[in-house]
Amino acid sequence: MNARRWNPLQFVLNNSTLILFALVFIGFSLSSPRFFTVENVINFVKQASFTGIIAVGMTFVLLTAGIDLSVGSNMYLSAVVSGLLMRTMGLEVLPALLVALATGTLFGAINAFFIVNLRIIPFMVTLSTLVIGRGIGTALTESQQIDLPQRMATFGQGQLAGIPMPILLFALVVLVAYFILTRTPFGRQVYAVGNDVEAAKKAGINTDRVIFMVYLVSGFCAALAGFVLASQVIRVDRSFAEGREFDAIAASVLGGTSLFGGVGNVYGAMVGAVLIQMVQTGLQFNQVNLYLQPMVRAFIIFITVFFDSLRETTQARLKRRFIRPVENREASTPART
Amino acid sequence: MSAILDIQSITKTFFGVPAVKEVSLRVAAGQIVGLIGQNGAGKSTLMNLIGGVVQADSGAMLFQGRPYAPRNPAEAYRAGIAFIHQELNLFTNLSIAENIFIDAFPARRLGPLRLVDRADVSRQTKALLAQVGLDLSPSLTIDRISPGERQLVEIARALHMDASLIILDEPTTSLTARETEKLFAIMRQLQAQGKALIYISHILNDVLALADSIAILRDGRLVTQEPASAFDVSRMIALMVGRSIDSLYPPRTAAPAATPLLEVQGLSAKGIVENIQFTLRQGEVLGLFGLMGSGRTELARMLFGMDSFEQGSIVIKGQRLTRHSPRESIRRHIAFVTENRREEGLLMNINIADNIALVALPEFARTTLQVLDQGRMMSAARSAAGVLQLKSGDITQQPARSLSGGNQQKVVIARWLLAEPSIFIMDEPTRGIDVGAKYEIYSIIDALAAQGSAILFISSELEELTGMCDRILVMSRGEIYGEFARSNFHAENILRAAFREEGVKPA
After folding, report:
1. pLDDT over 70 (residue B342)
2. For a 10 Å CB count at each end of chain B, is N or C smaller?
């Protein structure tokens, strides 16, 4: 049943990220011998952790065909709030983490309120909170840098069974998110809403609740990512996590999440985040001009988004509504699995 | 037999035009009610009232003996009414099982998470699929199964929610003969289990064979509801057509010339249209009639270069088109007046003059710096508005939104006039506009033809085609299924062709 011809173009389109990942990895390993070492691999996975965590949250939002541009500012604001409390009240690491998560989730709730209850488009809401969030953070710190206490550094450099703390948290987030998206009613409804929000309403899904929740998830993940980043750089300055929304969206889309909603998974977001960091590290190893590096990264992202759009048009063609019976099953069978 | 659904004198009006007027209808348990009527007779509105998509202005409904007034589709769904639309409401990115259980998964707790009980879902889905005769894996995603199988999955979902009334709107249009047979068998089985079904179809023989009682709508009113045994196909068609009024159409002032302007040769696109062949001559008004979903609009879009096709060619004034795009079509002086003014045709918040100038913008920027020649543009827009007798205030100030439907349509036509087209494709140009405005649009069509333009007039209102056209082509299931010359216009015969009745020679 459903026997299909193997179509090389479709295969490449559907596995573009993994193919790109392998090509980039092999390329850098050949061009720079120091690149292909366990130490270096652990290093760039560690550096990819916080991007990966935001990308996971972003994936929830993108799956509903929404967007959250405010994650960078959310990382900053929640790190500022928890950092200030650590400095002024001597808060321990764990309570500080909880404070950060609460701040980030509240941030997400504010986004969700404007999007769901006031029906303002996600792009405008989160673009506004991007500016406002950083503004509040700058006001709270009077634009000063916050140096975090030593215990934060200890937390950031901590290990469990030889695995660095950031990677551990990253893996945990991916795992939990994976279960939520694939195994819980909420997760499946996220996909349904992204596929067809009208049909979701007709099927009796509380679409408002689902959309509200994804922005909470994104806010929560942003705060966690901010905390992980803060524990690695041990300070929170004005430009902390600035522009990270771009990496998060890129990682998610690189991982096969469609900006049109309904398609994607956290596993892809994870691969995407590591890929972005790997390119960054590889470029440094090969001593590519510092000013050219952002362009190379942007180019790779562009290529992937281009693939996404290619996939989308192929899909649209295959999903055309038929008004005559088509005996040949293949014609009505789109390629994505 | 007691009625499971009892509709009592229900009325629904859209912008002052009644779509459903004082309709009363009864559906009993264990019964299939066939609902038929021409396009625009009110079938969809009536079903949308039952399905909670729209709300009635007056009248009442009783469902299972209790007052029933759903405010949204979800309420209708929960009450036990399943609505299977022509376009399916399945999530193509989810599995069959997930589609069936999406609103209420059986779940068990794992710490803070509620996990879907996948074994249970899979087991229940298998049982439901067996009931509709599908042998598919519950984990197969919807985009990998055929249209017919999707339809059956929708029915399985209706069974899962224990619907007592299932509405099927044109369910067989995209099904193969075998799939259709299977669907009918399952419908009869559901009927035997005591479910009520409403079956809407343009395939009258199917309706005759399946239904216990048949209800016929015309112009928003119920003509009759009688046992199926009281009907044959010709009586059904006669009741659907009713009587028409003359003098709604202006006299045609000129006869078509022999010069072909547009020749369509063997146009095919798999699953959409098949071997479309016709010639449109100078000064001719050629009608294209077909029921909803017969492929009229799809064909129009292909002719204008908006959608692609696989085989065949389009010849314009003797020259074969090699590139197909709306830009190229405009360059070749083809105009496309769309069915959907609000969504496709007009920029509603922009003023009338700019709307009119839109298509011909490049014409007005023929200066060295490509700057628009505002003065020339405005005077051209004014003269086009004048020719069409547009009723409006200052056309540079008034937004298109504020015009009546008929005048909006004139703006769309005026816009094309500026590009000086010789071929007009008009898709439902009079939809949703009042009788007086319709007459004016017809007059414009006649004047355009008299000036030597050719018009492909697409409509689902047969009367206006017989009133205006020199020739009528009938489309059915993506094919040209009949051709009628003006001397031979006979509403029943044309409808028969559209319904693919026997005795009409296919073109």
Report:
1. no
2. N
